[in-house]
From TrEMBL:
Pfam families found in the cross-reference section: mTERF
InterPro entries: MTERF, MTERF_sf
Keyword terms: Chloroplast, Plastid, Transcription, Transcription regulation, Transcription termination, Transit peptide
Subcellular compartments: Plastid, Chloroplast
GO cellular component, one term: chloroplast
Protein name (Swiss-Prot/TrEMBL): Transcription termination factor MTERF4, chloroplastic
Protein's organism: Macleaya cordata
Gene Ontology molecular-function annotations: nucleic acid binding
Family that this chain belongs to: Belongs to the mTERF family.
Gene Ontology biological process terms, A to Z: developmental process; DNA-templated transcription termination; RNA splicing
SMART domains named among the record's database cross-references: Mterf (SM00733)
Source species, domain of life: Eukaryota
Amino acid sequence: MPTVTWGVVQGRKEKLVSRVIICDYLKGLGIIPDELEHLELPSTIEVMKERVEFLQKIGLTIDDMNEYPLMLGCSVRKNIIPVLGYLEKIGITRSKLGEFVKNYPQVLHASVVVELVPVVRFLRGLDVERQDIGYVLMKYPEILGFKLEGTMSTSVAYLVSIGVSPRDIGPMVTQYPYFLGMRVGTTIKPIVDYLVSLGLPKKILARMFEKRAYILGYDLEETIKPNVDCLVSFGLRREALASVIAQYPQIIGLPLKAKLSSQQYFFNLKLKIDPEGFARVIEKMPQIVSLNQSVILKPIEFLRGRGIQAEDVAKMVIKCPQLVALRVELMKNSFYFFKSEMKRSLQELMEFPEYFTYSLESRIKPRHQRLSNKGIKCSLAWFLNCSDQRFEERLQADYIETESAGPSFCMGGKLELPGGEILSEEEEDESDDEVLYRRTVSL
């Protein structure tokens, strides 16, 4: 009869032989089994073949398995099927399961109950909509490997502490889930501190992050700081930087030097606006750095075609950069009304180019009619650049009050707006920060 010792030795030999056979099988498929050396493999080649074929069935290739051969150590029934079944249940379609595993193969080692379910509950607790869970995980599958009490909790807590509304965290996660994996001390807080140092109040930053969470993904040293320095090098005043970033937050993440160089040359060549004038234009409407040059040229050609000299058009653009983003069809209608009904001079239009930014049907026509009925003669700015309530007060007054400059934003104050944007009566009771947010983030 064989002894106990003989049986153990024989068992080890059988496992070794089985391992060699399985490794040869994998090599025959093109899979390099070196990383499986310390991994427990199935006892028969049939079981390994089942794993390989199952992974291929969901869309993985031999190359994918070579990228992460440890997936071959997962049991089809104990690991792979339960995990994939849960992922499908929470919104990842069956056709996307292979792509998901390819991007995050470690998920196959996870326990559904102990690791996956708590993370999904955490996301739901942040107000991520149930139907968005699958989308969020497809974008950033690594979330499933985070500890709830670690990076995710601290990043959310910090953002709420600077003023981000808790109810907006869910939409932020859906838009840009990567911030959940960012460390507060080394990534998020330095960005906040730097932007605050430029004059942006934390309340404004909070509104910016709520609408555009991807700003948190801009690299501070490689992208944000060089772009701010670039703006200064092109002639923008440091005191205007906060306003520029508040109006167009994406500007700190663009390939800015190339865009500014191209637009500055174009403005000088085609619009006859020198670099200093270009800097003032960008301060008022930074979105111009990304505006297509053919779009910019159409309103300019329209104005020149109406008999306005090129140098006067340039002055109009510097005063009201929004002109270059207007639709020519609307400008034509407004200009026709200006000449045929209002019968005003081109000089008035050059002095108040903001005229084109107002709605012809809802503001210009009805107010002009009211003025005509009362026989009041006034400037364009006097009857257009005010709220409806202020306009009524002006109509009832016995005199035309002096026009005052609009609100300005400087290091945390209000934003300097083009003439087309005016302070509504509701806004007058709001704080400076709230007014700035209402006027800039919506852009």
